[in-house]
Design goal:
Elements lengths: L1 H59 L2 H11 L13 H7 L16 H15 L1
């Protein structure tokens, strides 16, 4: 008889522990479901924002809109034929500059010579 009372007590304690654990798991599940619903709502809101931004971008990148803005704000005109010149005319307007090789012997690269002069000037400072 005493054995059955001990067994009943152990089973009762086990049942209570099981009920508490089950209740805690149920609360965790409800919290997780609430969080999932909140995240799904956030995702839906962000997807809607993305769609709105895509529509706004399409509207802003519309070539007709850009052309209207250019005409209104950038006083531009097409290039007339009097502004188009040939290469020979452009070269004739450039000042004549003769290429003078560096006085340093063995230096065939004018850029390297210029860099050397700049570095030498910095070394003197």
């Amino acid at each position: 008889m005493r054995f059955l009372n001990v067994l009943n007590g152990v089973l009762l304690i086990g049942l209570i522990v099981f009920a508490v654990v089950l209740y805690a798991r149920e609360q965790q599940t409800r919290l997780a479901e609430r969080e999932i619903r909140r995240l799904e709502a956030d995702i839906a809101r962000e997807e809607e924002n993305i769609r709105i931004l895509q529509v706004e971008r399409a509207m802003l990148m519309n070539p007709e809109r850009i052309e209207r803005l250019v005409r209104r704000h950038l006083v531009m005109a097409p290039v007339g034929p009097e502004r188009i010149r040939g290469l020979n005319a452009i070269l004739a307007d450039l000042p004549a500059r003769a290429y003078k090789p560096d006085a340093q012997e063995g230096v065939s690269d004018p850029l390297a010579a210029l860099i050397a002069r700049v570095q030498a000037g910095e070394a003197k400072r």
